[in-house]
Amino acid sequence: MISYAGISNPFGTGTYSVEKNSKVLRRYRYIHEQMFRLGAGQLPARAHWHLKAALGKHLYEDAEAAGSLRRRILELRTSPMLLQKDPNVTLTLLFEELIHAESDLELLVGLYRVMKPALLKAYTQHMAETQQLVDYPTVRLLKALSSDLREQIEWGEGMIEALQREGESLELAAEFESRMISYLEAAGGISGEHGTSTHVPARWRSGKVYEMPKHAVRDAKRMGSPAMGRTAIPNLPDDPVKIRLIAMMKARQEEMSAVENLASVIYDLKLMPWEFYQDLARHLWDEVRHALFGQAALEAEGIDWMALRQYVGGYDPIIGKLPAQRYALLSIGFEEKAMRRPGKIAEYEFCRDDAKHPLMERFQDYDWADEVTHAAFGRKWTPEMFGEDLDYVRQVADVEMEEREKFFQMWAKLQEAEG
To answer: Which of 181, 302, 331, 397 is deepest in the core (most CB within 10 A)?
Structure first.
């Protein structure tokens, strides 16, 4: 078809008025925002490395989806105030229950067998039923979101199958899956198309408010034990350049601890502008990518990094602090300072000029670029988080860095005393 710019069926009226479209898109927006928040809340509690990494990627994609839906909703004669409201009490209850997933498998079935497939089905139906010409912006948006959802669902199914091959029983997550389906049905489905039940389901696990774990979790079956401080890699060649290069790879892999810190800030800090959450979702996914840089580089060197002790010192010692303190320590204490020489510039130049390692040169090039963005996020948001100017925040970050240094000195002495 070459007429109407290739848009099919320009004559059908479709089933979505502007008002109805806005109402349904507000449900989609809410669901993506809640999956984003859920991913942040669950990430430090999940043991499996691959699940932890995927949650970081998918919560970033959910945040981007919510941001795009927000923009489209505002184009449909909708007050910004309506973007602050939960669309349905049972839908709210569903996510209050979903955050209480107690195992990797429960979380996997809740997200990748219940919520995301239902969302993809709703998007497919929406695209088919709306007026194709007048609502093309919505069709184009949902088409892009559907592509992400398909990839996420495929990954989730693969992860579930991998856990089953390792001996985990899906039956242990069957009740959780069934209950999540019942909550979704009572909420009228994804778009409310089935009508909302007047019987609001009872709470199950959500009688207790979900809290971030006090300790970041690592997979005891597959990985080395958690460690508060950095740990050396044994049996390295007696070559200072190689030793520094491998240590840099390990430091990148250990950035999953920064991911967990960011997840805690996202989950614990309420009532910030949406732009804040979207920026921190990007920051978090960048840190996941950095951890995967390190993983890829170590594996390319044939190093069994999973057998080594796993650093959690970017989360465990600071989870008791205020979210503003946690974010200032990372974004201002570490990342803004890393913009000064030697910092990230020297890391990149070392990989390029001394180690002459093409893969790490590429990784450090982009790591440096990402850190520039993260420092800008810190300067943008920490003053609002503290209600003070940036000079005050920098002083707070210095105090946090000093306390951190004392903590790790004490930890190192304890380790030495224990042999």
So the answer is: 331
